[in-house]
Design goal:
- The complex is a heterodimer of chains A (about 120) and B (about 110).
- Chain A contains no helices and 11 strands.
- Chain A is an all-beta fold and about 120 residues long.
- Chain A starts with a strand and ends with a strand.
- With about 110 residues, chain B is mainly beta.
- In chain B, strands 2, 4, 5, 9, 10 and 11 form a 6-stranded mixed sheet that branches. Chain B has a 5-stranded antiparallel sheet with strand order 1-3-8-7-6, with no helix packed on it.
- Classes of the chains: A mainly beta (about 120), B mainly beta (about 110).
- Chains A and B meet through β4 and β5 of A and β4, β5 and β10 of B.
Chain lengths: ~120, ~110
């Protein structure tokens, strides 16, 4: 199994540009989530999904959009990039919809810089 | 709402010394608690988790943590630090009900000197 994969690894955008960060998992996990990591802030939840067609907002959803058309994929879209969105983005998944005791498996991250 | 406080953004120890990383949580219900480790330029990896089965939890790489309900704490310890333990450590809390999102602390960077 590849686990959780993310593309691209690095990305530089100009203010106002849009882009999609890709996330895929091959573990048939129902629950998937996106976090951003900023120095001194830990990881903050952007959006999450509990299954295909079901998404919800996390702590910092503004400026981001998600959809979940398949169990495997959970892309994160930046609608109009801003310098405040410069961050490292992590995608994670976990088994079992109601299994809060299950660990989340993290992808390697995407480092995004917005100029 | 649940929250996590990690005391100390940086902790420095000598190789062979005791490692103690502090985590206090706030939750309206008995939570599930996790410690994750992040090595430079990598994703997060689970060290250990508390899910109410036992208050003393043993994890990978010689780490362990003790859940103390009266102190709302879940501190991470390792008897003897190794150079390879240098990394950032995150404590996280999850409520057992509903869809149970994970809330992270701000992290503690562990520095290990020879």
């Amino acid at each position: 199994n590849a686990g959780v994969t993310q593309t691209p690894k690095f990305q530089v955008l100009k203010t106002g540009q849009s882009m999609t960060l890709q996330c895929a998992q091959d573990m048939n996990h129902e629950y998937m989530s996106w976090y951003r990591q900023d120095p001194g802030m830990g990881l903050r939840l952007i959006h999450y999904s509990v299954g295909a067609g079901i998404t919800d907002q996390g702590e910092v959803p503004n400026g981001y959009n998600v959809s979940r058309s398949t169990t495997e994929d959970f892309p994160l879209r930046l609608l109009s990039a801003a310098p405040s969105q410069t961050s490292v983005y992590f995608c994670a998944s976990r088994p079992n919809l109601a299994g809060a005791y299950n660990e989340q498996f993290f992808g390697p991250g995407t480092r995004l810089t917005v100029l | 709402a649940q929250s996590v406080t990690q005391l100390g953004s940086h902790v420095s120890v000598s190789e062979g010394a005791l490692v103690l990383l502090r985590c206090n949580y706030s939750s309206s219900v008995p939570p599930y608690l996790f410690w994750y480790v992040q090595y430079p330029n990598q994703g997060l990896q689970l060290l250990l988790k508390y899910t109410s089965a036992a208050t003393l939890v043993k994890g990978i790489n010689g780490f362990e943590a003790e859940f103390k309900k009266s102190e709302t704490s879940f501190h991470l310890t390792k008897p003897s630090a190794h150079m390879s333990d240098a990394a950032e450590y995150f404590c996280a809390v999850s409520d057992p009900g509903g869809y149970s999102t994970l809330t992270f602390g701000k992290g503690t960077m562990l520095l290990v000197s020879p």
